[in-house]
Specification:
By secondary structure, this protein is of the alpha+beta class. It has helices spanning 9-15, 23-26, 37-57, 62-78, 87-97, and strands at 105-112, 117-125, 133-140, 146-154. Strands 1-2-3-4 form a four-stranded antiparallel sheet, with helices on one face.
Length: 158
């Protein structure tokens, strides 16, 4: 069996969970690289060319649409950061930044700023059962820099 969330077959069938949500069937998940935004940028450039042509030949109002599409194309190109740090690297860096031994961890990608620079948000837990401490570590997904150290707190008892 592969890593991931496992839902017992009888529970999945009773709840109507689609097969594509069974991580055991698909395998490990990889976050898509933000460089794919360049594809959208090229599509917008085709739209710019079309609307500029239409603005010259048909109606000058199309030039406004072409300008908007040009701005969107530029944004897609300048925000197409390469994801140099993958999930495993982010988990390793977060474990090194936490001031305690790490048991479980979870990572999610977020985007920061106008140019949507990718950041890993990693939550790490101490290895006790149940964990006594947890930390949030932010890692720049382009440079691998740990941002602002780690926010650490005790896990509250429920």
């Amino acid at each position: 069996m592969t890593d991931g969330i496992h839902i017992p077959r009888e529970v999945a069938e009773a709840e109507g969970v689609p097969d594509e949500l069974d991580a055991g069937l698909v395998g490990p998940y990889r976050f898509p690289d933000p460089r794919r935004r360049k594809i959208s940028g090229y599509i917008y450039l085709v739209g710019v060319a079309s609307t500029v042509w239409a603005g010259i030949v048909v109606d000058p109002g199309y030039l406004v649409v072409g300008g908007v599409l040009a701005v969107l194309a530029v944004w897609h190109f300048v925000s197409a950061w390469g994801l140099e740090i993958d999930q495993e690297d982010a988990l390793s860096l977060a474990a090194g930044a936490a001031p305690f031994a790490v048991g479980h961890a979870s990572a999610a990608i977020t985007f920061s700023g106008v140019r949507a620079r990718p950041r890993w948000q990693v939550i790490v837990y101490s290895p006790e059962e149940p964990p006594a401490r947890r930390a949030l570590v932010q890692i720049d997904a382009v440079s691998g820099e740990v941002l602002d150290g780690a926010y650490v707190e005790d896990v509250p008892e429920i």
